[in-house]
Design a protein that fits this description.
Elements (H helix, E strand, L loop, with lengths): L3 E9 L2 E6 L2 E9 L2 H10 L5 E5 H6 L5 H10 L4 E4 L5 H10 L3 E4 L1 H5 L1 H11 L3 E8 L2 E4 L4 E6 H11 L4 E5 L11 H11 L3 E4 L5 H9 L5 E6 L1 H4 L5 H8 L9
């Protein structure tokens, strides 16, 4: 399977923003029109786009349905959605909007019965979010840390039917310090199903290192701030993901 570089759009107040370590106090607008951003990502060669409703991640109530629908309608590539997905009703509503895959985090950590029902019905459309702080799972938009380790969480969710995970080291997210490849690889080996890396991409060398870790079970990476900060050229990243030679640091 080809490694996938997935550009991210975080939504707040109808605008594209970025945070540091999930801290809402660090909100920084990166674009006025998220739909234009999505079109730009597709034009540069994106095969998938990652969109997060940030306020929903804290409240569990969708805030950006209109913008999400506009993004999905504006591009022809699959769009995966995260943020506040804590009921079958929300899952079904987002799938009807045209979402391809949905990230479930807080519910997966806190409500095993609901998560089992979600996975029984929509396993192929669900990515379980393993959001980690110092090795433990965090919930409620990363604002609360649980007492469950990432590995224990991953194995428990595979037992419930999880087929894919998104692994985020919160301390790296939005910091441009490089992803925690060691922890992501260890998690992927432990769960034995595909894992998408997230948090900390700083440049093309991180994409190359993640591609090298693909045999561990890492199938892709989500990146946002590195793109907006001009640190990552998407066309180059997509070329590396396809196994083509690219300029830049190795």
């Amino acid at each position: 399977m080809q490694f996938e570089v997935i550009p991210a759009i975080d939504l707040r107040g109808g605008q594209a923003v970025r945070l540091q370590k999930g801290d809402f106090g660090t909100t920084e607008k990166v674009a006025e029109n998220p739909v234009d951003v999505a079109r730009s990502f597709e034009a540069q060669g994106a095969t998938r786009i990652h969109v997060v409703d940030l306020d929903a991640s804290r409240t569990g109530v969708p805030h950006e349905a209109e913008t999400i629908a506009a993004i999905i309608g504006a591009v022809s590539v699959p769009v995966q959605i995260g943020g506040g997905i804590r009921s079958l009703e929300i899952i079904e509503r987002l799938l009807l909007l045209g979402a391809d895959r949905l990230i479930v985090g807080t519910s997966a950590a806190r409500d095993a019965e609901l998560t089992a029902r979600m996975l029984e019905k929509y396993a192929q459309s669900i990515i379980i979010g393993a959001d980690t702080a110092e090795g433990y799972i965090a919930v409620q938009g990363w604002q609360e840390k649980t007492g469950e380790t990432a590995e224990a969480f991953g194995k428990r969710l595979v037992g419930l039917g999880a087929e894919r995970f998104l692994f985020t080291d919160i301390a790296r997210d939005g910091m441009l310090q490089g992803p925690n490849i060691e922890a992501t690889s260890a998690f992927a080996r432990a769960v034995g199903v595909p894992v998408i890396a997230s948090g900390g991409v700083s440049g093309i060398h991180d994409i190359k290192n993640l591609v090298r870790a693909q045999p561990d079970g890492i199938e892709g990476v989500i990146t946002g701030k590195a793109i907006y900060a001009g640190r990552l050229n998407l066309a180059e990243a997509f070329a590396v993901a396809r196994g083509e030679s690219a300029q830049g640091n190795s």
